[in-house]
Amino acid sequence: MSIIKTILWVLLAIALVIFSINNWNPVEIKIWEDLLIVTKLPALVIVSFLAGLVPTWLILRGTRWQLRRRIASLESAVRSSVGSKQETAVPAAEDPNSSKIYPPVM
């Protein structure tokens, strides 16, 4: 699975390099009325891509971290619950309420 992910990232990088070579043109970006930024088109595309990717990636990492903590907490609660039940359980041979089967007397 990681080889597929690596191949996709390499293909994305190659596509970005080809796009950058073919579109190395200056672009004017008007932020406010008197604020004008002149940059190259590939820089604008990369910054826009990262502006969408980074917050989404951070939310994903935070959610996974939170869920892993919750799962670990639940697993430890189950382990302690099962462990305490095993300590307090009486074996069937020593249980006075267990039904003992005797052979019929003749």
Characterise the protein shown here.
With 106 residues, the chain is of the alpha+beta class. Helix content is 65%, strand content 12%. It is built from two helices and two strands; from the N terminus they run αββα. A hairpin with a 2-residue loop joins strand 1 and strand 2. The chain is elongated, with a radius of gyration of 32 Å. The mean pLDDT is 86.
Itemize the secondary structure elements and their pairings.
Layout: H1 2-22, E1 26-32, E2 35-40, H2 41-88
Antiparallel strand pairs: 1-2
Give short descriptive properties of this protein:
single chain, 106 residues, alpha+beta, two-stranded antiparallel sheet, 12% strand
Outline:
The chain has two helices and two strands.
**Approximate helicity band:** 55-70%
How many beta-strand elements?
Answer: 2
- What structural class do you assign from the helix and strand content? alpha+beta
What fraction of the residues are assigned to beta strands by DSSP? 5-15%
User: What best-fitting shape do the alpha-carbon axes yield?
Assistant: elongated
SSE string: HEEH
Tally of helical runs: 2
- Sheet with the most strands? 2 strands, antiparallel
Give Rg in angstroms: 32 Å
Which sequence of strands runs across the widest sheet?
A: 1-2
Distance between the termini: 71 Å
Detail the poorly predicted runs: none
Residue-averaged pLDDT? 86
